């Protein structure tokens, strides 16, 4: 057990020291972009390194997280959920009471309703530092698009959001929000018309406008240094959770659970704990209709490949063509995953668990009814995983679930899945 | 290399006093069965070098024309093995015309770089352009291609500055592909003055032939670029013809390519003498 609040930073074989100088996490990560983008990627890396050394940058980031985002957000003990799961839990082999204590890290209480804003604030500060007046972003569920449009408004930047036409259809409230915030929403009609295609078109726009445009990538993926800097900006989640659980329980948790699409909220929660061997971690992939059918579980159902600037696990066929992902959650509907997760999966530090659409839908309703918290469908995947795991742990064990976003945006999708007309 | 078709062809064009005509089509567009006729049309129209695009589901560096070609090809069921079969047949039929595979890393590397390099060698492919493997990630593909004697053709762009150019040239072979606009394929046209400046800068840094592409759509543009570069690449404009005419595209492709070639020929002092 670690008694310090600040995670150790100088361990010899620290799992927290990735990526290497060329942006690789083991065999994953890297910089697989067209030559036109390379100079900009290298400049971004340089600017980010300088910013990280600059106390003024950190001070401004931290202050905006406090006064604008509303951090720190609470670590909340979900007692009714815990007790409900305990009621159904079989006793352990020694007759001990089972059903771990479940805490929720309340990222859904952030301004704009999800963890995405943490990263957007950081990247907008970098954009300003690089003298870029225009920002672009891709979005799936619309959360990252809303967060980007928000910081663009805050910083007075011109903003274009690329969004799959299918997602524009299933996330209408967020589309309207982005427009209110002054962003232009560009529906992407190519390919599967979801997140990956939005990313393709954002990259196409970027490569044509590198001179004045900053690409705010929404997840811990893409070419180096994006996976690293997005993780660093999102690590506020894990640093806060660590401090909070030590204050509340006087010890580290036994397990962390977070949903993984690209995986930025998960890596943000996990990273400050990676060197704490006693803390187990589960990343929850979207198993859609089940791993035998249409799904978005890149680790469970994919293999290593190159897409969108990085080498990582991808859903693909034998010829390396990318196959379409499916999840009821637009934010998880992506055929890849951040490269650090691929690495953590291969070295066995984090376990990745698939959760289906149906399981997530059930947990969406359960958490709403038991705790008065409507989770995003993404986050509902993590809650579903906790429902499976908590009854197998002793009652004195502790799980932290990342409640990465709120579910208001999903009520139409959920209603439709439940056959309810609203 | 025993038979270096690429350098032989650039040398031949140079001694003819004109730029090489480099033409791009996507393999399997609209179907694998149509591609041989289209490749024949390119050669018959006067193309010097053929770039054969390997289709990919997510062609991020391409504009709508080539993206649609990728989707048409994949939609009609094109597999990687079909592309190598097309290359093999092309090599038999056109033993002297250089053939370059162009595409994205994932389809090339999904079975490993050695496998890919071996397939290229067996099929008589002369060079490879991998759009999303910059020099920084050369280890993914460069060593295997070099070991197999396949040229790795690198891209230089308007954003490739003097500090970075040596890294791009280190390990580049065959020719240097100058992407004339910072953007995707088939969109904007580069200003002629910018092209001339860029080619001069690149020529000062390398002895490799310089081919210029992206946004070259007409015979007039090809001629203008051909006056300063060693090669002119035309892709989207040809792919658009295939998009419009489908399986009947070959004669239209041939006519268009012949017009491009005629414009390049007209630059040649020899050609002018003959014509006079």
TrEMBL record, chain A:
The keyword Lyase applies. One of its GO terms (cellular component) is cytoplasm. Its EC number is 4.2.1.20. It is an enzyme of class 4 (lyase). Pathway: Amino-acid biosynthesis; L-tryptophan biosynthesis; L-tryptophan from chorismate: step 5/5. Residues 1-20 are annotated as: Disordered. Transmembrane segments: none annotated. It catalyses: (1S,2R)-1-C-(indol-3-yl)glycerol 3-phosphate + L-serine = D-glyceraldehyde 3-phosphate + L-tryptophan + H2O. CDD domains: Trp-synth_B. Residues 91-405 form the Tryptophan synthase beta chain-like PALP domain. One of its GO terms (molecular function) is tryptophan synthase activity. Keywords: Amino-acid biosynthesis, Aromatic amino acid biosynthesis, Lyase, Pyridoxal phosphate, Tryptophan biosynthesis. The modification N6-(pyridoxal phosphate)lysine is found at residue 116. Its cofactor is pyridoxal 5'-phosphate. InterPro entries: Trp_synth_b_CS, Trp_synth_beta, Trp_synth_beta/beta-like, TrpB-like_PALP, TrpB-like_PALP_sf. It comes from the Bacteria. The beta subunit is responsible for the synthesis of L-tryptophan from indole and L-serine. Belongs to the TrpB family. Tetramer of two alpha and two beta chains. This is Tryptophan synthase beta chain. It comes from Sphingobium chungbukense. The gene is trpB.
UniProtKB/TrEMBL annotation, chain B:
The gene is trpA. GO terms for molecular function: tryptophan synthase activity. Its EC number is 4.2.1.20. GO terms for cellular component: cytosol. It holds the Pfam family Trp_syntA. This is Tryptophan synthase alpha chain. The active site is at residues 51, 62. InterPro entries: Aldolase_TIM (IPR013785), RibuloseP-bd_barrel (IPR011060), Trp_synthase_alpha_AS (IPR018204), Trp_synthase_suA (IPR002028). Belongs to the TrpA family. Tetramer of two alpha and two beta chains. It catalyses: (1S,2R)-1-C-(indol-3-yl)glycerol 3-phosphate + L-serine = D-glyceraldehyde 3-phosphate + L-tryptophan + H2O. It comes from the Bacteria. The alpha subunit is responsible for the aldol cleavage of indoleglycerol phosphate to indole and glyceraldehyde 3-phosphate. Pathway: Amino-acid biosynthesis; L-tryptophan biosynthesis; L-tryptophan from chorismate: step 5/5. Keywords: Amino-acid biosynthesis, Aromatic amino acid biosynthesis, Lyase, Tryptophan biosynthesis.
